[in-house]
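Quick one: examine this chain and its C-alpha cells and tell me how the chain folds. Here goes:
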Amino acid sequence: MTIKTVGYGDRYPTTGGGRLIGIALMTSGVGVSSVFTGFIANSFLAPRKKETEGVIAGSGDPKTKIIKIRHMLEEQEKASSELREGLVEVKKCYE
C-alpha cells in the first residue's frame, strides 16, 4: 500500500526504522510512477522517426538529397564550433 499511497491511516509505522522504510517506499513509489509517466509522455511528444527521415527521403532526386545533407552538415559544424567557443569561454572563467 505504501508504494503508491500512504493508505487510510489505520496502519502506520511507529518506530524510527519503520518510518524510514515508509519514507523510502513512498519516495521510490513516486519516482517509479514519475519515470513511467515520463516515458508515456515522451512517446506522445517525441517526433516520429518516419517524419524526420522524410525530410531527406522525400525529394527523390539524389542531387537534391546530397545538397540537403551537406546543408545539414554545415549547420551541425557551425553549431559545434559555437559550442566549442562557448566551452572555451567557460573554461577561461574558471581558470
